[in-house]
Each structure stands twice: as structure tokens, then as C-alpha cells.
């Protein structure tokens, strides 16, 4: 499979990194020699310096025999142009990164007709991520599959968690009345992601991920040692596109929202467009302003300014004032894995979300969905199970699944089922698998004929 990435920024680099793990025939084109040099030094992909809107550059990279082009530069117009030109030159599929979310919902323009097969908006994905996280207040990560039939929930174990000092096997036996699979954990001050086995011991402060059917979600609170808290009052710092979209969506779902925007003109614009949101014009870094606006009475604080450090520091201030849930938007992907270490509930990165949304289009084995967890370098994939595939030929305990992956359950005719030893996966199931990046290719083989 030949894939061309137009744009060597954060999204392009992350996509190239994912693809290089699987020895894909991957090309990255960009006009910035410094960015290409960095990719050359770190990844096993082919780079080409050039303008991806140039017909000659596209021909030089072999666009006519490519399977997919991912147009992910910082410019929406450039991406749309690249996708349209590439389609005319013979590429099979095009995906463009956009910023204007109107394009995702309009029925007036058929973008496929002009050569754009799929569009991804990082801002839209980030706003939806914020809404999902606020709807599950105690968990710092949540991914839904099949409309919530199966949920991946991430949380940090408190000292009150009954799991602490128990093995995974002991936990399952002790809480046999709760349907859950422990799919991953991240230990405090350790970089490695642990795929738990029966003898893996839970520790205080572990960041643990569970796969849980919808009916068992509320029971997981008992396992992590925390009580469910209601979130009603939310303060958003920053009137960016993400802040606007998040505020509108939250107000539509009956949250009480205050939004702080520093620029006066922007604040007045927001007041006109967000009728149900209380807009405050001021510097959100000013602790006195936050106190005047009753930050201590807020249930959640969401910082989405264009400055990562401002977002992180303001969330730490909110935490110190007793806010239950904090979410910070960060541009630097290196920050993603430190949220719990520094005391913020969740750090989100819109470029990482975009890369994950795009990456499912290059997966094999009938992948229906793909998602990244916030605090671990791994992926959760949803496969449609076809007939005569290896995964259907033996019970779970007899499938030779790499130790770098674990089954997280299946959805069968709308019902979520947990996949333990004697469970047999059947054709037509939608299977959830958690795996480290280097194991994805091996896992896909189980779902291919």
C-alpha cells in the first residue's frame, strides 16, 4: 500500500511514525527542509522536498500509483487543493485536514465530486472529546464503541481502591459480579505501557484502563475508589474555535457555561453567537479574576487557549481552588503523557486526535474504528470479524495473541460480551482489541483471511 503524506508538521509526523512501524510504502512531501530532515533522522519513510500543490511535485512522488494521500498541512485551502489535484492525477483515496466544520455537515456541496473523499477537523474532534470527558466526570479518558455498547474507561487508582495490591486475577475473582476487562495500565513515573496478565499487581496511583459494557459503567467507580460526581457548572478559558464549539455543545446539553476571552472584540462576538453562555472579557491567567468569577464553585475547568503553558498553569490553579475536573489543550505532543504526573486530569492534543481519526483509513482487516488513549502509547481498534479468519477458529485461550495486545470484548447483535478464556469469537462480531503500536500488524493477521 503506497501512502503519501502532504505536510511534515505534527499531524504528518505522527502519521508517518505510525506507518513506519508497519513498513508501509510511505512518502512525506513538504517544502520545509528542516522538518523533512527531522523525519529522515527518526523514521523509516521516504521524504521529498517540494510543494504538494505543484503538479510536478505530485508526479515526482508517484501520485498516479498511490493508494492514499493524506493532506495534513496547517492550511485548509492548501489541503483541499492537494486532495482535488491528487484525485485528478490518479490517487485512489484522498483525505484532507480542514478547520471549517461547516464542510462536514453541508449538503449543498458534494466534496467527493471534486476529489475529496474524507475530511477531518481537529477542532471538531477536540470539542467532542471535551464533551465526552465531562459527561464521565471521574474518568480521565473514555472511548465509546458501537454507540456506547462497549466503553474504554481510564482512571487513576486512589488509595481507597479495593484493587490496590491485588493481582488482575484476584480482582476478577473478587468482583465477579462486575463485567470488566483490564486492558492496560501505566505505572507512576514509568514510561512503559503494561499489558496486564493474571499476575500483574495493581498499585496506588496506577493509571488503569478498563473495557466495560454500558450496563457496568457505574460499577467501575467502586473499583477505582472514587464516587461519581455530577458536573453542571463549567468554566472555559479561551474563545478559540474549540472553545466556541465546546461551549455551544455543552449549553445544548444543559451545562451552565462561563467562557473567558481576553480579547475585547472577540468577547463581544462570542456574546452575540453564544446566547446561552456567559462571556467574561478578561485575562484568564489572573487569579483574582478567576476568584471573582467563582472558580471554586465550578465543577470543571477547560483551558483551550492557543498557549499550551497557559492552559496547563490555569488548570493547576483551578485544581488548587478545588475544581473537580480539569482539561487542558496542548500543542506539544510530548506533554500528553504527563497529565497525571503534574496534577491535571486530562491533556488533549487536537493533532493527535486528527491523526488517530485519519489512521483508521489505512488499516487492514476491516477496521471499523481506531482510537488513541491519552496517557499511553497504544491503540484501541474495532474489527469487523469475517468468516474463515484465524480469530474465529479457536476459543480466546487458544488464540496465539501476542503479549503486546489484549482482547477487550465483542459486540454481537448489539450486545456487549466480555472475552475471557473459553469465549469463542464468531463471524459478524465487532471485536475490540488493545495493542501496542508494534503489534498492530500481528493483530491484523488474525482478522484477515
Explained architecture:
By secondary structure, the protein is an alpha/beta fold. Among the domains are: 2-120, 3-Layer(aba) Sandwich (Rossmann fold); 232-323, NAD(P)-binding Rossmann-like Domain (Rossmann fold, 3-Layer(aba) Sandwich); 355-447, Regulator of K+ conductance, C-terminal domain (Alpha-Beta Plaits, 2-Layer Sandwich). The chain is built from 15 helices and 22 strands. The protein has helices at 10-20, 33-42, 55-60, 76-88, 102-105, 122-135, 168-174, 220-224, 241-252, 264-273, 287-292, 308-320, 339-342, 350-359, 440-447, and strands at 2-6, 25-30, 46-49, 68-71, 93-97, 118-120, 141-145, 150-156, 181-186, 193-194, 207-213, 233-237, 256-261, 278-281, 300-303, 325-329, 346-348, 367-372, 379-384, 405-412, 415-417, 430-435. The strands form four sheets. The protein has a six-stranded parallel beta sheet, sandwiched between helices. The protein has a six-stranded parallel beta sheet with strand order 14-13-12-15-16-17, sandwiched between helices. Strand 20 and strand 21 form a beta hairpin. The radius of gyration is 23 Å and the shape is globular. The mean pLDDT is 90.
